[in-house]
Amino acid sequence: MSDSRHFTVSANGIRIHCAESGPQDGPLVILVHGFPESWYSWRYQLPALAAAGYRAVAIDVRGYGRTSAPVEVDAYRMLALVGDVVSLVGALGAERATLIGHDWGAPIVWNSALLRPDLFRGVAGLSVPYSPRGDVAPLDAFRMVAGAEHEFYVEYFQQPGRAEAEIEPDVRQWIYGFYYCASGEPKHQPNVALIPRGTQMKDMFIYPDTHPEWMTEQDLDFYASEFERTGLTGGLNRYRNVGRDFNDLAAYRDQPINIPALFIGGERDGPTIWGAASIERFPETLPKLSRSVIVPGSGHWIQQERWQETNDALLEFLAELH
User: Fold this and answer.
1) What are phi and psi of 201, to 5 degrees?
2) Is 17 a catalytic residue?
3) How many CA atoms lie less than 13 Å away from 52 in the CB half-sphere?
4) Range 129-147 burial, b when 16+ CB lie within 10 A, else e
5) What's the pLDDT tens digit per position in 299-314?
């Protein structure tokens, strides 16, 4: 990624770190990562988009990397993150952009397209399908799924400091276990999304004998160095706002996204599997959907695990827009 241009811009009252590849006069494509990731998660997409003539800008989401990390928990509510993306378009000197998001980045770009369709040519969500705000508060739904003996991981992350205390003693080992267990690599994936009460998430982690091709030791070193420097509180605070998001987006209950859209999920990806009902509703919720792609064998980290299939789908979608 030595050919990427790194810089920061002021947008929505914070500093946003950008990694940019491709011609500056090309159509703008903004890439938004999830938890616990980085602009670096798009290392396979940036050169491919640049080679196709797009101005590809991968950001560090607020709370990550060299982007500002406000201390207030409610500074990470969805409306604030949408504000970052919306403000970024103008800060980059553009009038419109196409959005691509993975994991938490997917709801960020879905909601950006929902609230400001005038700014975006199209939107692609990876892993997490679009699901409009419904009638059941997220934490209530998660508790019903988990039952009395388990905590769903989103609930597990709610209390400030709790997950941090688990992660901080060995950041590198924790994120490696989290990445590997959510990937498509293990023959028998441990269900780290359901944590038995009285235990820690890391108690269920397993590790490979050798690094997967998509997550080399050098890749892991990069992620570990980022989070050893910044901590993970910023990323975890996104989870701590799901209740606020439910209230903030009440006016958008059951609203579709009316711009061209693409969904890419992994065959072995938890959020894609759990989101089967949302995918079935795409004819209603994404009426301008180009297609929905389920990548065989892929786990959660689609754009890294199956970067070629991901790039092919993204480039085909972008070609339809321009």
Assistant:
1) -55, -40
2) no
3) 19
4) bbebbeeeebeeebbeebe
5) 999 999 999 999 999 9
DSSP 252-309: GTTPPP-S-EEEEEETT-HHHHHTHHHHHTHHHH-TTEEEEEEETT--S-HHHHTHHH
DSSP string, 143-212: HHHH-SSEEEHHHHT-STTHHHHHHGGGHHHHHHHHHHHHSS-SSS---TTEEETTS-GGGG----SS--
Phi, psi at 107, each rounded to 5°: -60, -35
What is the spatial distance between Cα 270 and Cα 9, in angstroms, rounded to a whole number? 34
Please name the residue that has the structure tokens 């389920």.
Answer: 294
Q: How far apart are CA 152 and CA 83, in angstroms?
A: 28
Q: Which of 60, 84, 103, 269 is catalytic?
A: 103
Provide the pLDDT confidence category of residue 67 given band limits of 50, 70 and 90: very high
Cα(89)–Cα(56) distance, integer angstroms: 12
Cβ partners under 8 Å of residue 84, min gap 6:
11, 12, 14, 16, 61, 62
- This model's pTM is above 0.85: yes
Contacts of 248 (CB under 8 A, 6+ apart): 77, 78, 79
> Are residues 119 and 86 in contact, defined by beta-carbon separation less than 8 angstroms?
yes
What pLDDT digit, counting tens, does each position of 231-255 carry? 999 999 999 999 999 999 999 999 9
Report the distance separating Cα 56 and Cα 50, nearest Å. 6
Query: What's the alpha-carbon Rg for the chain, to the nearest Å?
Result: 18
Identity at 88, one-letter amino acid code: L
Q: Which of 17, 102, 150, 300 is catalytic?
A: 300
The Cα 164–Cα 170 span in angstroms is: 11
| Catalytic (active site) residue 300 | yes
